[in-house]
Amino acid sequence: MFHSRRCNVSDRCANEAIFELYHYIISTDKPITLTFIHMAQGKPTYSLYTELRNVISKSRNKNVHLMALNFGLKEHEFELSLTSDICWISLALVVVVLIIWIYTESVFITFMTCTSMAFTVILSYTLYQFVFHIEYFPFLNLLATIVVIGIGADDLFIYWKTWISIKHSRNASILERIVTYTFEHASTAMFVTSASTATAFFACTYTDIVSMRCFCIYAGTCVLVHYVIVITWLPACVVIYEKYALRGCHVFGKESKVGKLFRSIHSQLTRLSRFLLNRQSIISTISYAWLPLFLVISVGGAIALFGWPRLSPPSSDTFQMLSFRHPFEVFDREVRKHVNFLSSYASLPITFVFGVSKAFNGGYFDIKSHGSLVLQPLADLSLPETQLWFSNFCWELRQQDFFDDSIIQSHGCFVEELRTWIMVRSCASDLCCQDLVFPYNQSVFSYCLDKYTAATMTHGHTVASPGVRYKNNKPAAVIISFQSNVKADYNYDMMENFHKNVSTFLQKVTANTEMNKELYKPFFTASGGLLFYDVQSTLLRSLPLSLAVVLLASSIIVFVTTLNILLTVAALLTISCSLLTTLGILSLLGWELNILESVIMSLAVGLSMDFPLHVAVAYRISPLTQDRKQRVMTSLRHVGGCLTAAMLTTLVAGICMLPAQVVAYVKLGTFLTLVIISSWLYSMFFMPSLLIHIGPVGSFLQLRFKCCGRKGRRSTKDAATKLLILTRSLQS
């Protein structure tokens, strides 16, 4: 009710209608008006939602749009969209299969490659569930399938190109020799990419987010299992194809229209690839232009990632499930915060717990395992100095800026409540009475505390209620709770400031005590109000550290494989620049660092490694007698076509997922499109230009293990000879 005399408003405004209008109907700062339908939210209203959407879409009035609504159907719509969006995932898989088919010109090899990918996913799931005993399998683990498809196609293209090149060379006419030469060369490249990608995933398992741990374990397992399958399955399949399938009848013969179409597409792509790779001026002549251009782009990506707009933590309390323009998501993102009754939050309660350790002993990969309570030593509450310390703690707490002194708070501090309870009792009936002087005698305090606890903890008492907790009839823990003046909010900076102020207060209070600090070391919580902030801070801490760990592990693997410092530096610099560019573009697109985005971004490291590592390995085994430019062009002629085919496979798969309604599919498609283009450009233009200027010449900075001796030098020379033969066959 509004009082007209005190508020100086007209009589027609002195009623509840004004409050209801501005609290429920009209937004606070935008021309938005809500319309309420008197129906219960949930699945029964889905038919009304679909009918309303159809009516508005068919309306002749183009000025009427259904911008946002809230029917409580977001989860139901998400479940339906998961089913309907399978068509886009299926389209992406079909396109990938077609690209593999066109590249290999073999139905048998394409089918066996897809079978190996399916075996990888199934066997990895078996290891995940029954060997690792991880029961929790989040939806995000399905994204590992994209990794398997990308690596599977990449390995197939490398192996198939090597096989065809050696087969067409003059020095390899025996099938056993072709298999040996192909395996010796292709297995190294496949091992480097698989080991680096698996290391990247396993290095991210230290995060506190259980879903990310499970995803990294499953994705890393998929990569290793696929490597084991591909080095045993793929050579056998190629041999079977060479001995039996190639001589048998083709599904699409030479005279069939489909066969002619596929061979025409393959020949045109091969001709285009050779044309680009044979134009050395594209890379060698203007290498001085490629280097500064890509460096400037990567620096811009770093500024966008860490400066402005930077990759910020999520600012919304609702988890986005559907596409950006869906009415349900628009309501949660744009409308909710402008309406009072939807955006008003309660104040955060502050709870301090003494005598309980923060150590977590639950399941590391089980989201349902919360562990058991771990107690730590608690100060003797009956000691006079302990009574004074807790009384001073509560007094200091009331003086803080975050303490809400606008309301009368009770039952927050057990010492103050005990004193109040004693002061109102008469001395005629009990020892605990108003004549006692604080601090109390040890025996008196213990006796009165037991009586106070028995008298007060029977009315509305819960597990989180303030007071003393007992174990074996002795005080084991203390809970002190007060109400703060800070509203529960999902703004990271505001919650960070609140968390910092309370932590500073705790450090100050515990540092002033002259007694054992461990006995007075509490932790605090906000009854669930800081859970979202905890997720935000965890993601902000884990992402930079995980990227650094992954890059370090990748550099070690590259160095062990190539044993060359310059190649390691070039590959590491290429991967870093590609990562910065990809993540910087995602920051410019408005991505926030939520759990889904963090899992998707962890794929960036694995997918950004493959192409630079293939170029580094190809340069390493190129003939040592050639100069830098010749070695670079030899490497590109050998792996350039394979990398381009792998890039097209992932690129088309990502584009096919963009029209989906589920935000996970849309963001995954956006990410795949960006990361694969960035990795291919840096691997095909930046890294070769870098190697032209700083690449090792001959055996410069080339290390060798002493145990290898002449055998290592001989194997390197043989590999270089084979690669030179491959290059000549490619040119022909």
UniProtKB/TrEMBL annotation:
The keyword Membrane applies. Its main location: membrane. GO terms for molecular function: transmembrane transporter activity. InterPro entries: Dispatched_Hh_regulator, HMGCR/SNAP/NPC1-like_SSD, MMPL_dom, SSD. Keywords: Glycoprotein, Membrane, Transmembrane, Transmembrane helix. Residues 106-240, 567-693 form the SSD domain. It is a multi-pass membrane protein. It is found in: Membrane. The chain crosses the membrane at residues 86-103, 109-128, 140-160, 217-241, 288-308, 543-563, 570-593, 599-619, 639-660, 680-703. GO terms for cellular component: membrane. Belongs to the dispatched family. This is Disp.
